[in-house]
Each structure stands twice: as structure tokens, then as C-alpha cells.
Write a structure and sequence with these properties.
Number of domains: 2
Radius of gyration: 18 Å
Keywords: Aminopeptidase, Cytoplasm, Hydrolase, Protease
Largest sheet: 8 strands, mixed
Strand content: 15-25%
Number of strands: 8
InterPro entries: AB_hydrolase_1 (IPR000073), AB_hydrolase_fold (IPR029058), Peptidase_S33 (IPR002410), Pro_iminopeptidase (IPR005944)
CATH architecture of the largest domain: 3-Layer(aba) Sandwich
Mean pLDDT: 92
CATH class of the largest domain: Alpha Beta
Structural class: alpha/beta
Distance between the termini: 21 Å
Order of helices and strands: EEEEHEHEHHHHHEHEH
Main location: cytoplasm
GO biological process, one term: proteolysis
Family: Belongs to the peptidase S33 family.
Shape: globular
Amino acid sequence: MKPYAEIKLKVSEIHILYVALYGNPKGEPVLILHGGAGHSISNNKDMLNYHDVNKYRIIAFDQRGCGKSLPNKELRENTTWNTINDIDFIRRELNINKFHVFGGSWGSTLALIYAITYPANIKSLVLRGIFLAKTKDIEFLLKNDIDKYISKKNLYHPLNFLNSQIDNKEFLIELSSDLDKRQSAKFITKPHPNNDVIVEEMTIMSHFLYNKCFLEDNWILNNVEKLNKINVPIFIIHGELDNICDINQAEDLSEKLPNAKFLKIKNAGHDAKDVKKELIDATNSII
């Protein structure tokens, strides 16, 4: 799929974001939030395959330091809250009043934080592979893959070890491969063929995880009930076999949002392709 427009958007003295627009320029605006942190739309166009291009105006961007955004792999001025501000800057630059928001994994984290912070700007939320970014969620994501690298005295400090290896390309590539193997319950997830891209992605991810995603622990669940007041469609879609983001995160979120539609998908893991039908059904049902 080719964009009908591409924009370079300066959001700070350091960062310039790559923004791409797809689908129908007059369609319903939907913002796509990629995962990671550290991944990008530029390197994962699959994120664009869940909306009807005749109905939706699809807005996608590479987050700070990611993909085609510049400078690449930049960690300065690169926090969760910078990204939340960027999302609203993009909305205003495109003269959008409200938009639908679609995010999986880390993208679901950002979607929830943005909706909590700017509830009046939301038309719907479609969330997949929920990641609430609590300390125990980060540990679940990392611990099994990092244990084999660290000595017993560091066993309970995987984030410290991760941060110590942020410049170790071989480690980052191997960790990425380990995470890829846990992505899907249905498919073999192939690693990105370019090791430079893998290192870029994992550098950003390590930065965010070491800093606990720049959130107070349990921040999302402590604030998410605000979304019960905005009366918009919310979908929570999670594979029962997700080995990246434990399904208890989706269950906890669903308890806080009783009006949301919660879909537990059997024989599905973390990969969006595992729940492709449910994602498409959700986006088609909204408009």
C-alpha cells in the first residue's frame, strides 16, 4: 500500500517525525500506533491492513527515533509523554477534531494513555495485545529471555542488565530473535533481514523498558476508568496464548472498562496476524 501523502513534521529542536497518510482522504480518520517501543510503520506495513481503505483515512507515523523519523535511534527527548504530545500535535496539524485510535502491544499502551489524557478527541479505540507497562508486565516480557544471560546475583534485576547492554549489538539482535520466537501461536515469525534495523528497534525498546516506560507503576489502571464517561466503542482483543503480554493485563483492563467489548481469542498469540479477522471485524463494525 502506498501513501497518498507523506509529511516530515518537526516536533522539537531534535526530532522530525515521518507521517504517512493512506486510504480515503475524505474518510473517517484513524490513527495507527505501532508497537515496540522502537518498531515503526515504515518497517511493518502489516499494521495498515486492518482498515477498509475506502472508508478510512489512515494516519500512521514513526515514533521518535524510529523508522524514517529523524534522528534515527535518538534517545534524547524520547519518552512516553513526548509521544503523547506528538500524537496530539499530529491531530492538530491535520485539522482533525476527533479520530479513531488503533494500537497493538506498545501501541495499545500509547492509545490508552492518549485517550485518558485527551478523552474528548477519541471516536473509538481498537486495542490488541494489551500492554499496561506495569513493572510485572515488563518483567513478564523480558525475564525468560534475559535469565540465560545474567548471573544469579543479577537474576532479579533484568532491567539493569538490559540497560548495561544497550550498546551491545550482538546481544540486541539475539534478544530480538528470542522475542520474535514468542510472538505467534500460529505462524513462524521471521526476524527483520536487516540487523541495523533490529539494533535500532531494540535500542529504543531497551531505553523505554529500562525507564519503566516513563510511567508510575499501574498508572493506566489507576486512571483508565475516565474512559467510561466518553461513550465510544472500545475493543479489547487478546490472544489466550500470548507469551509476550500476559492475558491478565487484558482481563484487568476489561474489569475497569465494563462497556468495552473484550475478545479472548483461542489458539492466538501476540502477533496481530493471529487475530486478523477479529481486528478487521472490529474496525468494520465501527463505521
